[in-house]
Amino acid sequence: MNLLDIGGGFPAPYDRKVRPFPVLARLINKEIDRLFPKNIEILAEPGRFMVATAATLVVKIIGKAVRDGKLCYYVDDGIYGTFSGILFDHCQYHLESFANGRRHLCSVFGPTCDALDTISRAERLPDLPLGALLCSRNVGAYTTASATDFNGMPRAKVVHVNQR
Fold it and tell me: Is the pLDDT at 126 greater than 90, yes or no?
């Protein structure tokens, strides 16, 4: 054997529970050194790791309700759009508010009125008005690629921001 494909599955920093890549790289390198000859060629598929941090999604609150004492927000993108990774990849994208204030445990749903269009049942967000914006970081991998126009909802507009 002269080629080893270690595949993908390299982590993106979706939340604080994800171990930093340098920690995992040390473990992988240690095991490769232990198990394989020095002249072996290593192939990896770090797609998500490389591009997840390339995009941040901004959504607008288009609906709001209190259900069983829990604050629920409805936003203008969902499972059938940019949050498709929840369904296809079991990703947990977290939402952040641009506003300050006391945080409450909230549910967040997409715009389609489909029960599957659930973004999160456990986000800590302040009490926000309709029209307020939320953001979700690290949505650059496998999101727009699997987005649809389901139920007449247009896909999110992609805007390039050059940061220098």
Answer: yes
